[in-house]
Design brief:
2 strands; elongated; 10 helices; 67% helix; mainly alpha
Length: 158
Amino acid sequence: MNPSTAFRNTSIWRGASSEFTYARSNRLSNEANDLLGLANSDVAQQIEAARGDAKKIMAIRNGNPEEYGMIVDALNKYNLNNIQQMRGVAHTLYAQSDAATPYQQYLNMAGEAQARDAAFRMGMKPDERRMLSTIETERMAGTVPREQQTVRFNRHLV
């Protein structure tokens, strides 16, 4: 098969965009939206304003038991102590969502990172290449760190 044909035929090219999906990114983004929505709700703000006053918190719970329960469930799910921590987790989920886009999944493939490192090393003299380990090259080239790279064995991601 002609190599140029292989790249046009996405069913053959293993880096086909259909291989990478937005599913994880969308799930994380939706979870972050829900969490931030709860953390910024009127009930959450009332809980923050109560500052641990049991009588005020009981009044808040009795006034809107459904939303209060959702906030407590979210705090328990993420093992959090307060609403501010909930906001922090939501922002972390947004960052993880950005890192899970199809393009970022593609960049995280070990073979792609290796290709970018090789391109970076091409501009070096042989002596310079011998002096640098591949891990040092990854840092200098700004590619994905090894612990974040995805390795594939027989079309299965590891």
